[in-house]
From TrEMBL:
It comes from Mesobacillus foraminis. The lineage of its organism: Bacteria, Bacillati, Bacillota, Bacilli, Bacillales. SUPFAM superfamilies: Thioredoxin-like. Pfam families: Glrx-like. This is Glutaredoxin.
Length: 86
């Protein structure tokens, strides 16, 4: 079953754009759906995440926030059994 990665972000956020590019690059080798959520469109999300964005969530579990590290994400994908398609 294909996993879902949710990226909580906002517009005009350079760290968010970098995280999005990194996740799109990972989609070349890992099978997951990427869902982008703009926290500024939801008051609860804005209150919850505020300045901690970007936040990467894998199947409901927050795996990293702030500066996103590709090696950390790959390790989380391995642990969470995201399908590697190489």
């Amino acid at each position: 079953m294909k996993k879902t990665v949710t990226l909580y972000m906002r517009q005009r956020c350079h760290l968010c754009e970098e995280a999005k590019e990194l996740l799109e690059e990972l989609q070349r080798n890992w099978q997951f759906d990427l869902l982008e959520v703009d926290i500024d469109k939801d008051d609860d999300l804005t209150e919850r995440y505020g300045i901690t964005i970007p936040v990467v969530v894998l199947d409901g579990e927050e795996i990293q926030a702030g500066i996103i590290n590709i090696n950390f994400i790959i390790e989380a994908f391995s642990v969470k059994n995201v399908d590697f398609i190489g």
